[in-house]
């Protein structure tokens, strides 16, 4: 006697179908299931995920030190608020005052925390957007925004491509403004309810100037939008020898948006998290600062139970934020990022691989377009015929698969909505030996001369 199987929802079926069709998902799954380690030297080096492991030894020593962690009875309960603990609110308040130069003091009551910044974005979306509406973002952009917005809130991304030379200029905001005018003129749906920026930028690694941030504020006011500023890389800004005059980090919290941009401060939301500056992606700890919109904070609190941060992450983050070691940690992290960036860009220049200079974040966007031609030529030879000369997404996926076959994963440009196939994001803040292996494997896949060892000798850790 046969038994009928239970049926998943249409939504779950759609998720499974999309994952099965996605070659990017397949490459990522291969990488995660067979990652390189000292115990698995033939595994795949993950040089595509933005994880900073340069300070892991420091952090492990800090949190293992006697007296660093103090667990209270409250930590074993649902805490003092659905939005977080009083301890973490106070620690973050001091941190924002010290590192973000806010125009007005960031008080504990302005802060909400969550189990990761993705969860915070999802809950903000549910509070300011209805299903089917969209957030405006310039492309390229962080690939996780789409899933974060769509997973439960069913909010979409409306992206506008910005040429590389116009990024972080007033022309960038003008392109978004023109898109809003087009949508209004042609009655284009979905409705836009927010504009989203990443500052410092992911994947391009620059800090937005004050002038451009104020232009974004004017855009938000003109079109009645929220302005969501993701500042998760705020303290991952470093000295980059190839752009000595790079703009420093300017937080949206530091601007007088009402006086200088005619923008209501109630539109401004600042996001932050533990994953990047504190090298702790696995702890799942995010935060939002909302200084002038109590109604929004109340709306998020009313549905906050699923996004609550666990007490262990709260305890660990608070301990570091309130430690006398914090300034030393942040300074060491910046120096480590600068050395790693200098090393990987020296390697790129040695191989004449164009890249977008950066001074923030954990990565650099590299132009591998000339290596797409080899993929296309091989496809012609395999088929015994000739395909039209083109550089399409399938060529980029083919090159991605070659990298993975060769034992290294890089972040494909398609994930970040890059306009042209052939760009890949390389994460450089992984342990030096692991990064060396990744670069050696890229040399092999691309048929480049092996220069990694020579460059390693000239660029000390």
From TrEMBL:
<comment type="similarity">
    <text>Belongs to the class-I pyridoxal-phosphate-dependent aminotransferase family.</text>
</comment>
<dbReference type="InterPro" id="IPR004838">
    <property type="entry name" value="NHTrfase_class1_PyrdxlP-BS"/>
</dbReference>
<dbReference type="InterPro" id="IPR015422">
    <property type="entry name" value="PyrdxlP-dep_Trfase_small"/>
</dbReference>
<keyword id="KW-0663">Pyridoxal phosphate</keyword>
<dbReference type="InterPro" id="IPR050478">
    <property type="entry name" value="Ethylene_sulfur-biosynth"/>
</dbReference>
<dbReference type="InterPro" id="IPR015424">
    <property type="entry name" value="PyrdxlP-dep_Trfase"/>
</dbReference>
<dbReference type="InterPro" id="IPR004839">
    <property type="entry name" value="Aminotransferase_I/II_large"/>
</dbReference>
<protein>
    <recommendedName>
        <fullName>Aminotransferase class I/classII large domain-containing protein</fullName>
    </recommendedName>
</protein>
<feature type="domain" description="Aminotransferase class I/classII large">
    <location>
        <begin position="84"/>
        <end position="442"/>
    </location>
</feature>
<dbReference type="GO" id="GO:0008483">
    <property type="term" value="F:transaminase activity"/>
</dbReference>
<dbReference type="GO" id="GO:0030170">
    <property type="term" value="F:pyridoxal phosphate binding"/>
</dbReference>
<dbReference type="GO" id="GO:0006520">
    <property type="term" value="P:amino acid metabolic process"/>
</dbReference>
<dbReference type="InterPro" id="IPR015421">
    <property type="entry name" value="PyrdxlP-dep_Trfase_major"/>
</dbReference>
<dbReference type="Pfam" id="PF00155">
    <property type="entry name" value="Aminotran_1_2"/>
</dbReference>
């Amino acid at each position: 006697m046969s038994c009928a199987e239970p049926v998943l929802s249409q939504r779950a079926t759609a998720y499974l179908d999309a994952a099965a069709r996605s070659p990017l998902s397949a490459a990522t799954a291969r990488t995660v299931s067979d990652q390189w380690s000292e115990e698995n030297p033939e595994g795949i080096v993950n040089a595509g995920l933005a994880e900073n492991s340069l300070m892991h030894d420091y952090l492990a020593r800090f949190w293992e030190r006697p007296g660093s962690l103090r667990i209270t009875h409250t930590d074993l309960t649902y805490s003092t608020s659905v939005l977080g603990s009083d301890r973490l609110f106070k620690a973050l308040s001091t941190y924002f005052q010290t590192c973000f130069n806010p125009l007005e003091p960031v008080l504990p009551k302005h802060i909400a925390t969550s189990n990761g910044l993705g969860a915070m974005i999802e809950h903000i979306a549910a509070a300011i957007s209805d299903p089917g509406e969209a957030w405006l973002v310039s492309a390229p952009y962080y690939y996780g925004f789409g899933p974060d917005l769509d997973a439960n809130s069913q909010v979409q991304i409306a992206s506008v491509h910005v040429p590389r030379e116009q990024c972080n200029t007033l022309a960038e905001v003008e392109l978004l403004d023109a898109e809003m005018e087009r949508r209004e003129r042609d009655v284009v749906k979905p409705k836009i309810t927010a504009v989203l920026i990443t500052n410092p930028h992911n994947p391009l690694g620059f800090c937005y100037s004050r002038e451009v941030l104020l232009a974004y504020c004017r855009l938000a006011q003109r079109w009645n939008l929220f302005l969501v500023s993701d500042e998760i890389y705020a303290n991952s800004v470093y000295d980059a020898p190839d752009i000595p005059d790079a703009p420093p980090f300017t937080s949206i919290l530091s601007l007088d948006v009402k006086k200088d941009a005619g923008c209501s401060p109630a539109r401004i939301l600042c996001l932050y998290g533990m994953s990047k500056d504190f090298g702790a992606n696995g702890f799942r700890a995010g935060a939002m600062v909302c200084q002038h919109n109590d109604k929004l904070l109340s709306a998020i609190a009313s549905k906050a139970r699923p996004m609550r941060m666990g007490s262990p992450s709260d305890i660990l983050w608070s301990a570091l934020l309130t430690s006398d070691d914090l300034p030393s940690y942040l300074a060491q992290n910046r120096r480590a990022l600068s050395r790693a960036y200098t090393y990987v860009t020296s390697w790129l220049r040695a191989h004449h691989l164009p890249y977008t200079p950066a001074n923030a974040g954990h990565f650099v966007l590299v132009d591998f377009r000339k290596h797409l031609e080899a993929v296309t030529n091989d496809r012609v030879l395999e088929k015994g015929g000739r395909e039209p000369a083109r550089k399409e997404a399938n060529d980029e996926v083919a090159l991605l698969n070659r990298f993975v076959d060769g034992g290294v994963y890089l972040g494909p440009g398609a994930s970040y909505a890059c306009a042209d196939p052939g760009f890949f994001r390389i994460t450089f803040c992984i342990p030096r030996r692991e990064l060396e292996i990744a670069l050696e494997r890229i040399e092999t896949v691309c048929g480049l001369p092996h220069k990694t060892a020579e460059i390693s000798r000239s660029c000390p850790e």
